[in-house]
Amino acid sequence: GIGTMAAVGATVMFEYLDHPADVIVHGRGGTLAQAFEQTLLGVMNYMTPLDNVDVDDALTRVVEIEGHDMDNLLYTFLDEFFFIFCTEFFVCKEVKITEFDRANFKITAQGKGEILDLSKHEQGTEIKAITMHNMHIEENASTGVTDVYVTVDI
Questions:
Q1: Is 102 exposed, middle or buried (0-12, 13-18, 19+ CB in 10 A)?
Q2: What is the pTM of this model?
Q3: How many CB atoms within 10 Å of residue 94?
Q4: Is residue 149 scored above 80 in pLDDT?
């Protein structure tokens, strides 16, 4: 079961599951794109709680990502925003996948947020890397729910 869900606003659905030396981020959505988006927000929220992060439209990031299969596409999507966080200190509070080409494993996404400011933002737990270890995508056609599980190295 999903257990207790973390909530940042009305539409965020992600949680953290125990795992030795790592954390599993579990994102859920009504579509695969929504589950990817929720997983990314779960990763960002783990590094700095998103409650105090504002959206500065001038800092919007647009990314175009390709993968060679669905797991690799998810990994690349998360890793691209993680790279932007690590290099620019950009905290993504909102994300929208604007194009999702399932056949060719391509995503275009728009991320909104602001630059990390430790005088304003609480520092969460450092993530060392996004991993493909135990990555799992479950699309349930009968319930219309998609669950994504990603292990992050902390």
A1: exposed
A2: 0.88
A3: 18
A4: yes
